[in-house]
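#struct-pred
JK: can someone run the complex with magnesium ion? inputs below
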Amino acid sequence: MQTLLIKEANKENIDIAADIIKNGGLVVMPTETVYGLGANALDKNAVTNVYKAKGRPMDNPLIVHLSTANDAEKYAYTNELFYKLADRFMPGPLTVILPKKDIVPYEVSCGLDTVAIRVPSNEIAHRLIETSGCPIAAPSANLSGKPSPTSFAHVVEDMNGRVDAIIDGGECDIGLESTVIIIKDESAEILRPGKITYEELKEIIPDIKINSAVKNQCTDEKVASPGMKYRHYAPSAPVFLVEGNDNDIINFFKTKQQTENCGILCFSEDEELLLSKNVLTFGRSDDETSQAHELFDKLRRFDNMNVERIYARIPSDKGVGLAVYNRLIRAAGFDIIKANNIQE
Ligand code: TXA
Ligand code: MG
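RT: done, structure tokens with the ligand placed:
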């Protein structure tokens, strides 16, 4: 398939991309979180092609992207809590799972009786949804298993030849996918952490919970969000998280640098303490926003380095850090090594 690369999101080009969506094609669009692989959510064939283009199993449902939260009631049974959340966080990086209406095809929800709703704040995504007049089903635009794409170059690497068009929106502001929550009656649970934090959501939903799969491995068939059971965000070389005090971790990294063909993913302030071989940084230890912004790009870069293993720093799990922690621990397949036990 010939992929149209749209470098400029002017009116004429958005019209072309919107026509592709209306006619059942696939368009990769930038959002404020990561790039999304979009199709008309009401067109079963188009949605099926999304799974094929990504190589994604058909038991992992898609998020439906809307231009305004007011449209949510066309596709889902909304309630007061949804509109409270929408008032505060939409448009923005929040996805809310609600009971679905029949109009949402099986292919979007993978047979669940719920649908995930999101209203992106990215201007290009907003214009594409509005111009097409379609709700847009879109997973992250990476090949299944790889880190989500946060730049045009990442998307071209994964999707050129697999979709009808890719719109260049530069680097995504946030760099990690949206916070996903499920509303149950008048309460809620976080299924995937993101830029909108537990602490912020608690201000609106004081008893909001965090699903145990956010920090722990989960292979249960009945996992609340099917995406949580798959290995994700992974570069080609295996990733190991390294735990311990700062000194032990730096010593661990240095020893590995001398004895193995490895890559090191560390905080900016660590870099000067290490050998200058195959080291990538992902922000300062106290700057979770930069860590979120950098993480996926850095994980992808290791693929061009020819390293056999990657050792990575464990970020804090507070605030936006919880989202960084959640992605990195999945990239590592939950493999954590203690730095003071270098034999491991
Ligand atoms: O920021 C984002 O959310 C990006 C951009 C493109 O919007 N999209 C994204 O989609 O990350 P995806 O498909 O890569 O991740 C969606 C997650 C998956 O883990 C999926 O299992 C979960 O949301 N999900 C979708 N619909 C669901 C539902 N009805 N019930 C439970 N989990 C659902
Ligand atoms: Mg994804």
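RT: quick notes.
The two ends are 47 Å apart (CA to CA).
The chain has a mean pLDDT of 95.
JK: thanks, will look after standup
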